[in-house]
Amino acid sequence: MDSETDDEYEKISDSSSVLDESSRPPQGTEVTALQAPLDATISVTLPSELVEQILLLLDTESVLTCRLVNREFNKIIQSSTLLQYFLACKAAGVIDNPQSPLSCIERLEALKKREDAWRKLKPVFEMTISVKHQTASSISRSTEGVYFLSDENLKDLNYCHLTSFPQDNPRWTKIPGHGPALNWPGILVNFVTALYEHDLIVNLISSDRGNYADTVQRHSLDLVLLKFSTGEYHPLACRPRIHVQRSPEVRPWIVSRIVGDNLALVIHSDDGTFSDKLFIFDWKSGRRLLQHDATENAYLDVVFLSPQLLLVPNSVLSHLEVWHLPPHQIHPKPPIQILSLRLPAVSPKYSIFEFGCYGEPNPFHHSMPHLPPRPFFSSPENSIIMVTLRLWSTSGRPASYNLIMHRRALLDTIQTWTSPSLLEQQEHLPTWLTNEVTMHQIEDPEDGSVQFDAQSKLVSTMRHLKSSPRTRDFPTFATSRTSRTFPASTDSGPSSVSSGLSTNSSTSRCTFLQVPWAKWGPSISRWFQVNETHAEWITRSNGQRCAFSEPNLLDRRKLKVSVADFNPHNFRRNAEIMARLRSGECDNNSSNGNKGKEEEKEEEFEILDHKGVFLEEVYMGLKCVVYRAPDEYDFDLVLMDEQRLLGLKLNGEGWIESVKVLYIG
């Protein structure tokens, strides 16, 4: 092999580090004939443009392997801007945006600049957005390129589009919490968006219905579905206002997420007047698909892992609930819990008081028709999930942690622990919990249509031996059917169960496996101990990155900012660079040995120094690279979105005075 060829193949080996599990086809997918080994003569008989299109059908590993076939293949791949952009997207964990007007070469250049900018953490430009309408109970959150703040009147939302250009002048715009309705008496409790997928914002409002006979359950919680770009009721929503429940509490804690047609929300009572609940709605039809009753103080958060899977942290049981949402069918099945993933056992000296989760970008069902014209966006499947754990101590010393996992790795773990073959092996183990699910089938007397509504509750929190074979179909156990008419209720919800219509009901018991932390968590996780301020603001991650900050000990008015990057390609790239730097200090013969040690180190587990917070050793296998910003800043905490770091300046009462935008790219 001549020196020119050596240089070419050295170039190949440099980029081969993009090979990782995330770049391969998902397990169980069919491999087409085009993914079989290619004949080296194919490039001689086919035009290079056609070879390029064939190669685009392959996974990343196969494309890189094809570069080793011969010089002609290598030349085609190296000279193809389209293939280079394809490989760069896979390495960066981003998805191409077909709506972007940029050419392929412009997209590739933009992606290279973006990745380099996030490594250096040197903003392209900085901009400060003043805040004049914040209150003590304000909602403050950035999502999908927009920063939201609730208004001082507690009824409306103020939002500001976060700019990508220094010449822009961001302005706050008000959107009524109630939409176009007039004389609305309620208050805004929270909101949820699906801007890129549906141009949708859903406001969660609480209204005093004191004129009802039940003066205890006097507050009504409702969803108002609006088209974000216009502020009008959303045209795809059959019912622009959906009733959720009535309660004695005016401002319960509510968190909601939307993917596809499904809207999931958890409701937590701050004063313990009612048990926490998980609801799932079809927001387009307005139908309630599930109401699951948990214990008090169980739920604070929920996140979609995929369009069909929900992750719900449970503080009381110290585990992550995994719920499956079946696709819409003629004979629908209800959402059911399919797995419980336990955390490390907590010391008796500590107790969990906050257990949240976060993961952006949100997965989407089919497409994202309302994306801005950016050339690419972060892949939801390759993003990280951040779990926040806050604990009280009997000694008065709280502890807070961020637990980071790759979404794809977590999905693979769930698939493993719910596979029929593995479940059969676990039959004899006392690790099964049970939910009781009642399925209501309601017939509308006017048009004869049938609707379904499920109600669920945990009936066994004790681990027990499984008593009968498990089937993946619903219902699973001891099903009893009744046919009766339910009496009318003062709490007229979106379901017809309580509306006096003819209803058939079936009750079943569904069991699911409870997996100890040591069996599922160490290899896919990394823990960070964080301060209380950091733990309170969970919107610190996006894609495969997570932002951290710490005060300068010499000047506490200044904040040092860093970003942890969990992209495996970037970790390996950094490891190779460090190995080369070390090998430069040694003789040439030790180069391969050092690289081997680096690869071996990548497989090692680290141990979290939790100082007795947990009852077991907490091992961590997920690796990351931490980049530190060269400058220091005078804001109080840092958040992030896909393109920016966001520095919040707080006043003495903890309210937001300004948002400093550090545009990275």
Automatic annotation (TrEMBL):
SMART domains membership: FBOX (SM00256)
Protein name: F-box domain-containing protein
Organism: Amanita muscaria (strain Koide BX008)
Positions of the UniProt region annotated as Disordered: 1-29, 461-505
SUPFAM superfamilies: F-box domain
Domain F-box intervals: 40-86
Record's compositionally biased regions (Low complexity): 489-505
Compositional bias segments (type: Polar residues): 477-488
Pfam family of the protein (one): F-box
InterPro entries given in the database record: F-box-like_dom_sf, F-box_dom
Species lineage: Eukaryota, Fungi, Dikarya, Basidiomycota, Agaricomycotina
